[in-house]
Design a protein that fits this description.
The structure holds two protein chains of two kinds. Chain A is mainly α. Chain A is built from ten helices and two strands. Chain A has a two-stranded antiparallel sheet. By secondary structure, chain B is of the alpha/beta class. Chain B has a single domain (about 15-520), classed as 3-Layer(bba) Sandwich (FAD/NAD(P)-binding domain), CATH 3.50.50. Chain B is about 25% helix and about 15% strand. Chain B has twelve helices and 17 strands. Chain B has helices at about 20-30, 55-60, 75-80, 110-115, 130-145, 160-170, 215-225, 270-280, 355-360, 370-375, 420-440, 500-520, and strands at about 15, 35-40, 70, 180, 225-230, 235-240, 245-250, 260, 265-270, 305-315, 325-330, 345-350, 380-390, 395-405, 410-415, 445-450, 485. The longest helix of chain B is centred in the last third of the chain and has 20 residues, at about 420-440. Classes of the chains: A mainly alpha, B alpha/beta. At the A-B interface, helix 9 of A face helix 6, helix 9 and helix 10 of B.
Chain lengths: ~200, ~525
């Protein structure tokens, strides 16, 4: 899953952390529904993708349909093909509990999805989440991107997704370092691919 | 041995704010045996509270009281209620500052003489010269421990990956003046440890290697027995007597209770939005336009540097966040060279971001594969911040909202900023040069970013020779009120191309010397 090997000169001396997520067996089983005994670390690409429906089932208040639509939308907003649905789900699942307490939010989401699905049905004969290609779905999102619903979901995704420490390894972000003594002995100056001056 | 002063003690110097200006002033005055009361609006955080986490620290230490972005700048869209990114807390923005300690160049003190009258701008010479400030720059560099300077004797900060990739590109396109004077210890110094290349410098240095008044000047002032620090004390107005002399300040404590602290001298160091706001909010029947505002320049000439930023995707991994946050700084474009199509100059400053801030600032409002495909190369990124001279314009200002009030019942500030054509030309030039620099080392993509919320806020109580042109004289003393001083970056007559902290500290050292002397001579 380390995409550096395709596009970068070999980095012999550099400390290049693998872009994968360490998953505890328990969390893995919970997250994937797979009985993969003994597996403690997996590259993101090899994670079995659980059915969207199973993930969306956690939307007990707004309902699984809303959960699935938000999930597809979250992926279309910040698409990372190598990152599985469950990390997108982590960014959007707080809406379910929040909407239970906040009728204005519930209405914003409900109305927003109704509008999006109406556009999708008019154009493609099916709701947004069922429109098969990203290109087609994007034409729908461009129509609503300046509206409050889209702005809300997109704005929250910036922190809900990219500020989730669980996805950082997939981007090569190593996170908090002070407790590890910083980088003074861990590669702050190990860049080795520049041509010699 | 912290001291407690009576609120009726009118022999004390009251310092409003505890950042680079206020914290330094407290340290320098107490060394001279002057009693000071420091009123700080924010909380007293300690290094225990610091986390290596961009958003957590943003929420914890930023000044988040409501402000409004107005005018023609990008911030009205991108950051409508966050024009400035500064700190509310003991130590002020020295918690968040990058540590880059650059001096102004000589011509930057003489902008009117150097550039001539610039249409649409309100440029003016400082009433002091580089030569007059140079000895105080020396003291400041020693006090702050600026690595690689003669004054501090500290070795330079060792190059990190981010430094190396920028330096290589800079040299390839012919740049020669590549510097990195950063106020972080490269060996144990002044009771603080050496930098461990932790990164997250702008989230508060976890080990205190980077200089901050929070753990340098403030505790030192307290130890003298001449200082009292009152955190969570928001100054609401400055009081004066019938002769027009400042007599004390009214402030609200953390519970909203109001207190009047009497004073012999009042020094305002609340950064360039709160300082003019306080003077304007102190309007009285004697001073209907606000204190020290006979010139009408209080709150005017707001400058926050001509800035832009860009992320570069390099052909190999960089991990720009490993090590000190400031990487290589290119100074070749700082000298004034009007042939480039603008007055003044700029620095290209390597400044690392972590993934969450890269995602937030790369393209505010942006989405889709344009954004996500770039972020997938986060580990290959380098990042520049262009920091250039911002010409003073009268209309760029801090004003008071007509109706909207804050939690203390005071009008909230409106921060109005519109680019001068000079700013726009400089920004374009800086981004184009960065692109060349990046491509020289094989960059595959360069993404221009809009300016961040302003961390360098200057000019709103500016220094001037003549009382009609500005708010304070060459000592930071207001032209109108002898015992009222301004001790922060709002004194700046021009912005220069340098990050302001070192100059704020140098001015505060010089001002303390003047205040202590004037008090001894009974002139104050």
């Amino acid at each position: 899953m380390n995409d550096d090997q395709h596009q970068s000169p070999p980095a012999q001396g550099m400390r290049v952390p693998e872009k994968r997520i360490a998953v505890s067996r328990r969390a893995f089983l919970k997250g994937s529904g797979l009985a993969a005994a003994g597996v403690t670390a997996l590259s993101a690409g090899s994670l079995m993708v659980p059915a969207r429906e199973a993930l969306a089932a956690s939307f007990t208040h707004l309902g699984p349909g809303v959960g699935k639509t938000l999930l597809v939308m979250a992926r279309d907003i910040f698409p990372h093909d190598k990152i599985s649905d469950r990390f997108y789900m982590l960014a959007i699942e707080p809406y379910d509990a929040a909407a239970a307490k906040d009728p204005a939010l519930a209405k914003l989401i409900g109305d927003g999805i109704a509008q999006l699905d109406a556009l999708a049905t008019a154009q493609f004969g099916k709701p947004y989440a069922e429109v098969p290609t990203e290109t087609e779905r994007l034409t729908l999102l461009y129509t609503i991107e300046h509206g409050a619903f889209f702005q809300k979901i997109k704005g929250d995704m910036v922190t809900g997704f990219y500020n989730n420490k669980a996805v950082w390894p997939l981007f090569g972000e190593e996170g908090s370092s002070w407790e590890k003594g910083g980088y003074v002995d861990r590669g702050f100056d190990d860049l080795d691919w520049l041509p010699k001056a | 041995m912290s001291k407690t002063f009576s609120k009726d003690d009118n022999s004390v110097v009251v310092i409003v704010g505890s950042g680079a200006g206020g914290g330094t002033l407290a340290d320098e005055l107490t060394r001279e045996g002057v009693d000071v009361v420091i009123l700080e609006a924010g909380k007293h955080h300690t290094q225990e509270d610091f986390e290596n986490d961009e958003w957590a620290m943003f929420a914890k230490i930023s000044w988040l009281d409501k402000r409004i972005s107005a005018g023609g700048w990008h911030h009205t869209e991108t950051y409508p209620n966050l024009p400035a990114w500064i700190v509310k807390g003991v130590g002020g923005s020295t918690m968040h500052w990058s540590g880059l300690a650059l001096r102004f160049m000589a011509h930057e003190f003489k902008t009117l003489s150097t550039y001539g009258k610039v249409p649409g701008a309100n440029v003016l010479d400082w009433p002091i010269s580089y030569e007059e400030l140079a000895p105080y720059y020396e003291i400041a560099e020693r006090k702050m421990g600026v690595a690689g300077t003669k004054a501090s004797g500290l070795p330079p900060m060792p190059p990190n990956n981010h430094y190396k990739v920028i330096e290589a590109g800079a040299r390839k396109i012919g740049y020669k003046d590549i510097v990195r004077p950063v106020a972080s210890n490269t060996r144990p110094n002044d009771g603080r440890p050496a930098c461990q290349q932790i990164g997250y410098c702008m989230q508060g240095c976890k080990i205190g290697a980077k200089w901050s008044t929070l753990y340098s000047e403030i505790p030192r002032a307290m130890k003298t027995g001449h200082a009292e620090l009152r955190p969570q004390s928001m100054v609401l107005r400055i009081e004066h007597d019938s002769s027009g002399k400042a007599t004390g300040v009214l402030y609200a404590d953390k519970d909203g209770n109001q207190h009047l602290q009497k004073a012999r001298v009042v020094c305002v160091a609340g950064n360039s939005i709160e300082s003019p706001r306080l003077l304007l909010n102190s309007a009285s029947s004697m001073f209907p336009n606000g204190l020290a505002n006979s010139s009408g320049q209080v709150g005017r000439n707001y400058m926050n540097h001509t800035t832009a930023a860009a992320l570069t995707i390099n052909p190999g991994p960089v991990y720009m966040y490993r090590g000190f946050d400031i990487a290589a700084v290119v100074s070749d474009e700082v000298p004034n060279n009007p042939d480039r199509g603008f007055m003044g100059g700029y620095h290209l400053e390597g400044l690392a971001l972590h993934l969450p801030f890269a995602a937030a600032f790369m393209k505010p409002g942006g989405w889709g594969r344009e954004v996500s495909s770039a972020l997938e190369k986060f580990d290959h990124m380098s990042c520049v911040w262009v920091c250039g001279e911002d010409l003073a314009q009268e209309e760029n200002s801090i004003t008071l909202h007509a109706t909207e009030k804050d939690q203390h019942g005071l009008p909230i500030p409106i921060v109005t900023k519109t680019d001068h054509t000079n700013d726009a030309a400089m920004r374009r030039h800086g981004l184009a040069q960065w692109r060349k620099l990046s491509e020289a080392v094989g960059a595959t993509r360069v993404i221009d970013m809009p300016p961040y919320p302003a961390s360098h806020n200057m000019g709103t109580n500016r220094m001037s020779e003549k009382a009609s042109d500005g708010v304070v004289n060459k000592w930071g003393q207001t032209h109108d009120i002898k015992n009222l001083f301004v001790s922060d970056g709002s004194q700046f007559t021009s912005s220069g191309a340098a990050n302001p902290t070192l100059t704020i500290v140098a001015l505060a050292i010089r001002q303390a010397e003047y205040i202590a002397g004037a008090m001894r001579r009974r002139e104050l």
